[in-house]
Write a structure and sequence with these properties.
GO terms for molecular function: nucleotidase activity. The chain is an alpha/beta fold and about 250 residues long. The chain has 2 domains: about 15-25 and about 90-250, 3-Layer(aba) Sandwich (Rossmann fold); about 35-90, DNA polymerase, domain 1 (Orthogonal Bundle), CATH 1.10.150. It is built from 11 helices and 6 strands. The chain has helices at about 30-45, 50-65, 65-75, 80-85, 90-95, 100-105, 125-135, 160-170, 185-190, 210-220, 240-245; strands at about 15-20, 115-120, 140-145, 175-180, 195-200, 230-235. Strands 3-2-1-4-5-6 form a 6-stranded parallel β-sheet, with helices on one face. α1 (about 30-45) packs across α2 and α2 packs across α3. The longest helix has 15 residues, at about 30-45. The chain binds magnesium ion. Magnesium ion binds near residues 19, 181 and 183.
């Protein structure tokens, strides 16, 4: 085989993608609730009544996966201003903290066989801030985020977003991808792309917490999702991954 020095060899390790929000920290932190309140206030600030704000928020979430995409498309807002006012204003340092168990879990993944990346629908500043507070920055090798600055940016569960993620990680074989997310539609999206092992994180004890309609939607199956899903598993604790995917951990 002839190779030149500029030709790069594909990294043939597996890659485990972790969602960030409500996956790498507990949803009991109520960050999504606080985020939702800020997004609602943003709609109100644009001149909508509380009723319209709730309706538009939900509609854009269902239609576009993220409220901000509807806001950019239909209200001509500045996405960076939105990000500053919503995610940027969250007192994250008071809401989440270092979790030794999650840290150890990522540390125990065998890096000779596996790469660990994050795949989030948040914009970069929020994602980096969360990883910094959780002290997971050094254990996450790559970050694929939603680029709010790009016109018509894509997000999970759109096929293009998973394809973009693979491109960024420099892999062409989707069967090398493992994925953990608390949002069922995101799992179905990854599965549809041929990502071989997918774990839907349904945190234990969350049923007692009211999450509102958006939380309910996150648990629902995507319309037309494949019935046969040998690779899709439900986990209630990230520790379950040790049993589910022993091949990715150090012996
Ligand atoms: Mg999430």
């Amino acid at each position: 085989m002839s190779t030149t020095t500029t030709e790069s060899v594909e990294d043939d390790r597996l890659i485990v993608w972790f969602d960030i929000d409500n996956t790498l920290y507990s949803a009991s932190s109520r960050i999504s609730h606080a985020m939702g309140r800020r997004i609602h206030a943003y709609f109100v600030q644009l001149g909508h009544t509380h009723e319209e704000a709730s309706e538009l928020h939900l509609r854009y979430y269902i239609q576009y996966g993220l409220a901000i995409r509807g806001l950019v498309r239909h209200h001509d807002i500045d996405p960076l201003d939105f990000d500053r006012q919503c995610d940027g204003s969250l007192p994250l340092e008071d809401m989440i903290k270092f979790n030794p168990k999650t840290h150890k879990l990522l540390e125990d993944i065998d890096r000779t066989k596996v790469r660990v990346w994050a795949l989030t629908n948040a914009y970069r500043p929020h994602a980096q801030r969360v990883l910094r507070i959780l002290q997971l920055e050094d254990l996450i090798e790559g970050l694929v985020f939603c680029d709010y600055e790009m016109e018509d940016f894509v997000c999970k569960p759109e096929p293009e977003f998973y394809q973009l993620a693979m491109k960024k990680a420099g892999i062409t074989d989707p069967s090398k991808c493992y994925f953990v997310d608390d949002n069922r539609a995101n799992i179905d999206g990854a599965w549809a792309q041929g990502w071989s092992k997918c774990a839907h994180f349904c945190e234990r004890g969350l049923e007692a917490m009211e999450g509102g309609r958006i939380k309910e939607i996150e648990k629902e199956r995507a319309v037309g999702a494949a019935e046969e899903e040998k690779g899709v598993e439900i986990i209630t604790d990230l520790e379950d991954l040790r049993v589910l995917w022993p091949e990715i951990f150090k012996k």
